């Protein structure tokens, strides 16, 4: 609400009433900083379960609409987003963009067919994994989408 920077995705999410979730808020050094702050200032309470409840609710209550996932990178956010769709018998669309490889057994490197086997992506979906750095591929994907939309709008005028 207080961000007044049009170059921020949080600014546009707020302006368009798009929820932003962070189920990994306590992961890594941020979690350590929150712990230290809470020791010095008792009373700080962060409800991580509420974020998971809200993420799962987005997928569960999407019916009869379809759901799609665009996973940039992987790890814990990928896990939570895909798991949420398991509660609705899988996402209808899935695009993974990352450089992770399957050989080490990481969730980030898992191919979409692994998510299909768990019911996180529907068997009827045509998921795609793009082997590229997300900071390169995603802006190109977004630009192409807007270019196509703009071209279609200009063609009908």
Structure description:
The protein has 157 residues and is mainly alpha-helical. The chain has a domain at 67-156. The chain contains six helices and three strands. The protein has a three-stranded parallel beta sheet with strand order 1-2-3, with helices on both faces. Strand 2 (93-98), helix 5 and strand 3 (128-131) form a beta-alpha-beta unit. Helix 3 (48-60) crosses helix 4. 16% of the residues are buried. The mean pLDDT is 90.
Topology:
Blueprint: H1 9-15, H2 28-40, H3 48-60, E1 68-72, H4 75-86, E2 93-98, H5 112-118, E3 128-131, H6 134-156
Parallel strand pairs: 1-2, 2-3
What's this, in brief?
This protein is mainly alpha-helical and 157 residues long.
Radius of gyration (CA) equals 18 Å
**Strand content of the residues, in percent?**
5-15%
Distance between the termini: 37 Å
Please count the beta strands (DSSP E, at least 2 residues each).
3
Mean pLDDT value? 90
Please give the largest β-sheet: 3 strands, parallel
Element pattern in H and E: HHHEHEHEH
Family: Belongs to the deoxyhypusine synthase family.
Keywords: NAD
GO molecular function: deoxyhypusine synthase activity
Cofactor: NAD(+)
